[in-house]
Amino acid sequence: MSEAPQPTTAAEKQSSARVLPALILAMLSFSVVQTAVVPILPSLAKELSVSASSVTWLMTANLLSAAVLTPLLGRFGDLRGRKPMLLISLAGLVAGSALAVSTHSFTWLVVARVLQGAGGGVLPLAISIVRDELPKHKVTGGVAAISASMGVGSGLGLVATGLLLEHWDYKSIFWMGLVFGLLAVALVAFRVPTDPVTDKEGGADPLGALTLAGWLSALLVAVSQGNHWGWTSNKTLGLFAVAAVVALVWGIIETKVAHPLVDMKMMARPAVAFTNVSGLLIGFGMYGSFMVISNFAQTPEKLTHYGFTASVLHAGIMLLPSAIGSMVAAPVGALLIARRGPRLPLVLGGVLGAVAMAYLAVRHGQEGDIYTASAIFGLGVGLAFAAMPAFINGAVPVEQSGIANGMNSVLRTVGGAIGTAVMAAILTGDTMKLPPQIPLSLPTLDAYKHAFWTAAVVCIVAGVVPFLIRGGTAAATATVAGGSAQQDSSPELVKTDA
């Protein structure tokens, strides 16, 4: 005898249709804004009359701000409600875009990028809202769609930058961020319901927040500026030392306070710890590969006998298949997670990323090679991004969902900063000898091959890491889909040692 239809089905459908598009747009808004300036940093240096080393602060400041604010906003969302913190996160994105549109000062543009970094809080907050608001059978798909949107937005941002610069100046990029941000604020305000506070007994941890910001700041500045200062310079080594010491102090603080910002026992769970390692490695591969492929495509072929002399728009279009691949990966990843658990898509993500980069290391003479590798890589990144929140949500209680996913997002950001720095070091470490009358420093083809192989190795390691997580199949799937298994002290969860 079949069961009678549940009376809440229509309401559940309405909730999904209202909430999920708003959260996806919010995620797209941040990811588009974050990567949009990457292809135009050299032209911005000329436009703003600053050095090539100084203009990189437009990316460093944004990464740093996102890394610091993402876990803070995620934790405050756990404590004070996800929707208010999501609106604050988007307000920072809007305020930064508005400031960038209105100023011609490099200093204020850096400040604007810091404000835009507040948008990094969207990912953990949106994932927590999906877990709270969507019907159980739609949580996996919703989380996968939001997480994969990060890869989609990153690819679209590169294309949109080239398209806008074909017709307008660089400020049009920030106008795009402003419009996207305002639309996201409106949709979140009117479509996302006010959620219940899930951790009423929790408290603030100002010292933990301060030390977390301290070691992340020291680490990211050292990584981002190491190529310009020199990796063995006193400033670089000093900042690495400060990061290590402050990180140790932060860890000690978090184990002693009554209400830690980050529960270190939660972070030490294999499902969380190893997923974070994969997040760092996938972030390395994604950001580093975007930078290398874009530079390779724009290399003047007549001078180097490789590359495609592509414009910013053309280079962005070559990376468009990565956005399409990530878009396809969201439903595919959700299906795999529902049937096999999150391990398989996370492994496939790393393997596909490695295949794409190895392919480019071997074949790179035709534009079709770039399109093919870009599509494969985007599919891999999308699968990995869809799987990581599933692993984490299956291992942590609902009231820690925001901070747990926030720390995973931070490590993706840190991985991205390390990836771009390492790739830049590889490319600048092996340059061609050009005639004195050509004031350019261009990498050799071997340098690009080494960069592609490096990304391939990092991605394959990311694909191996999930095998260190015990029981990453049905049990984790059940906890993700059910949403409350952690609260019930599920025997399956204990068994998986998650």
Strand content: under 5%
H/E series: HHHHHHHHHHHHHHHHHHHHHH
Helix tally equals 22
Sheet having the most strands: none
Overall geometry: globular
Structural class of the secondary elements?
mainly alpha
Arithmetic mean of pLDDT: 86
Question: What's the alpha carbon Rg, rounded to whole Å?
Answer: 22 Å
Task: Give a verbal description of the structure.
With 498 residues, this protein is an all-alpha fold. It contains 22 helices and no strands. The protein has helices at 9-36, 41-48, 52-55, 57-80, 82-102, 106-116, 122-133, 136-165, 171-191, 206-229, 234-256, 264-268, 270-298, 301-304, 312-318, 320-340, 343-362, 367-393, 401-428, 445-464, 474-482, 491-495. Helix 1 runs antiparallel to helix 7. The longest helix is centred in the N-terminal third of the chain and has 30 residues, at 136-165. The chain starts with 8 loop residues before the first helix and ends with a helix. The model is unreliable at 1-8 and 472-498 (pLDDT under 50).
